Amino acid sequence: MGKVTGFLEIDRQTAKYQPASDRIRHNREFTIRMSDQEVQKQAARCMDCGIPYCHGPTGCPVHNQIPDWNDLVYNNNWEEAILNLHSTNNFPEFTGRICPAPCEEACTLNLEDAPVTIKTVEQALADKAYELGFIVPQPVIRKSGKKVAIIGSGPAGMAAAQQLGRAGHEVHVYERESQPGGLLRYGIPDFKMEKHFIDRRIEQMEGEGVTFFCNVNVGVDKSMEELLGTYDAALYTGGSEKPRDVGIPGGDLIGVHDAMPYLVQQNKRVARESIDNVGWPSDPVLAGGKHVVVIGGGDTASDCVGTAFRQGAVKVTQLDIRPQPPEKEDKLAVWPYWATKMRTSSSQAEGAVREFQVGTLELVGENGILAGVKCCHVDEKRKPLAGTEFIIKADLVFVAIGFTGVLEAGVVSDLGDKLTINTDRRGSTNVAANEDDYRTSVDKLWAAGDVRRGQSLVVWAIREGRQAAREIDLSLMGATDLPR
User: Fold this and answer.
1) d(Cα 164, Cα 148) in Å, to the nearest integer?
2) In this structure, what are the phi and psi dihedrals at residue 365, rounded to the nearest 5 degrees?
3) CB count, 10 Å around CB of 337?
4) Which residues, at least 6 apart from 42, have a Cβ–Cβ distance to it below 8 Å?
5) Under a CB-based contact definition with an 8 Å cutoff, are residues 208 and 418 in contact?
6) How far apart are CA 54 and CA 436, in angstroms?
7) Is 22 helix (H, G, I), strand (E, B) or coil?
8) Integer-rounded Cα radius of gyration of the chain
9) In this structure, are residues 248 and 363 in contact, taking their beta carbons and an 8 Å threshold?
10) Cα separation, 468 vs 423, whole angstroms
11) Cα separation, 317 vs 332, whole angstroms
12) Burial zone of 214 (CB within 10 Å; 0-12 exposed, 13-18 middle, 19+ buried)
């Protein structure tokens, strides 16, 4: 390592945020960028730990070679660093912003609660590479003569499209919405990732020969029979979009919404797109001046919290049925794996009231309009505790308790019994395809990302898109140079 004693001499430092009182007044990113020198000092903390768990199976799903590019950043070799990072991750500017960073949990220095700020360095490296002009289209000279269709332009679809395009195939990406990006564009709020980062990647990919067809719902506007008859291979990366049913009385009251349509509508509003779209509510859903309750404790719930504050909510309460986790984990019991401990997102830190070990009994209303949420405390088995009932005032409720798999309308319904669907222990339905070759039960059709594995992280989607691209290239050409 360039600075062998860096971890002993330099304290951990993360990028700071704008004050909550300022950042809730806009929808832009609010992280205060660190200087190049500060980033290099943080990269210098990466120690010669012998076994870098950060990029093994416990840390990074795409197996980023973190110690290598940390060393290159420290030594001011930004060009070689981005080449190394791109060898495993097509879109480090995405993961550097929205990944929860399991790599930092797996860092050896996390045994002392001071892991290397890997995520910060990754984002800074990607942004610096753009500034220096290192990220440009890489068109291939020799074409394979094969045509591949990608259904869905989220992180899995984008990663696969770029890999297959660079392998020499003619790649067409079909997207149901009006712009490419999938979950990245329409599910993740702008204050976490501004959408011009997606736009410049799309521009790069178009420069490499990838073609995007938007406003095309495959299975509805274009049949699977036609698509499979036109292309040599197709990859389904439609995501996991079906919201889990809250299953409590009052779900039909005016003011009760699933989380994702709310986030999609706000992202379209910020992008100055029309919010009218089949499948999403066309009436404006705004939290200004309202009491908001968010049911769920995950990332989607947190995004609803931050969005509601930016719309001017009077109060936001987040309900989590799980017990409040400990402030600090037992390192010897869980490291280098992801630990269950108290974590506060930037959105929660903007003023949310968090209620733990609370179950939702009923959504109550008057004349068909939501008025409150009837709750109670629950035991360790999530069973209601008698006598603990209480009501929270609510004008809006957003249900963010996860997704149950692929939407049936479209590809699944069009293929009918030809496409095998798996049901997991939680009742989620996913397209059946193993992690070795990503093939489905339909000839010439592969599947990757959340549509195959169920709801997961963006970094897992990128991994699956890259791996599926390799298997498609291998199938079409009999050999492949794409990495696994």
Assistant:
1) 8
2) -155, 175
3) 14
4) 10, 12, 13, 34, 116, 117, 120, 121
5) no
6) 23
7) helix
8) 23
9) yes
10) 21
11) 34
12) middle
8 A C-beta contact, residue 384 and residue 376: yes
Tokens of 346: 């930037």
DSSP assignment of 52-83 equals: -GGGSTTT-TT---HHHHHHHHHTT-HHHHHH
> Digits of tens for pLDDT over the chain (484 positions)?
668 899 999 999 999 999 999 999 999 999 999 999 999 999 999 988 889 999 877 899 999 999 999 999 999 999 999 999 999 999 999 999 999 999 999 999 999 999 999 999 999 999 999 999 999 999 999 999 999 999 999 999 999 999 999 999 999 999 999 999 999 999 999 999 999 999 999 999 999 999 999 999 999 999 999 999 999 999 999 999 999 988 899 999 999 999 999 999 999 999 999 887 645 556 899 999 999 999 999 999 999 999 999 999 999 999 999 999 999 999 999 999 999 999 999 999 999 999 999 999 999 999 999 999 999 999 999 999 999 999 999 999 999 999 999 988 899 999 999 999 998 777 789 999 999 999 999 999 999 999 999 999 999 999 999 999 999 999 999 999 999 8
| The one-letter amino acid at 84 | N
**Full-model pTM:** 0.96
